[in-house]
Amino acid sequence: MTITQDAGVKSKAFDDLINSFNQIRTLYTIPDSRETFKFIIDQQIITSLIIEAHDQITTLFPDERLELEVKTDPEIAGSQTLWINIYTKLEVDEAFDKLMILDETWWIEAVSSVTNNKLHINLEWESNEI
After folding, report:
1. Which of 51, 62, 88, 116 counts the most CB atoms within 10 A of its CB?
2. CA 24, CA 35: separation in Å to the nearest integer?
């Protein structure tokens, strides 16, 4: 492969990553886009899983807001993970039942296919206050 061909392959991969990130931005609320994009660049293997997660989650949680959040573990220097937060107004039992269905029908198998997984799904509750 020549230097020009190698540069073209890298450019295509970066363009694909930008396109994926733009798609992700339409699917999720992202409070810190810069930090999230930086994380996704470092963990490119989870990009398709993030996109697929949206479809799987909205099947069970069709009206909930989904957010991507990078969290840093305060006990491990430099350890970051990406969380998909499902913001719901459902009753606790109903929300956890749906999360369990998601785990059993898709998530556990999907996440096991990604080595060194740094993507997690979490339930959060929307406030009824204005």
Report:
1. 88
2. 14
**Residue 11 belongs to domain spanning:** 3-125
Instruction: Say if CB 89 and CB 62 are below 8 A apart.
Output: no
**pLDDT per 10-residue tile (average), the chain, 130 residues:** 54 84 96 93 90 97 96 84 96 98 95 82 82
In order of 47, 64, 87, 107, the CA distances from 125 in angstroms are: 25, 10, 5, 21
Judge whether 113 lies within some domain.
yes
**What pTM does this model have?**
0.85
C-alpha to C-alpha distance for 56 and 107, rounded to whole angstroms: 9
* Token pair of 113 as six digits: 């296919």
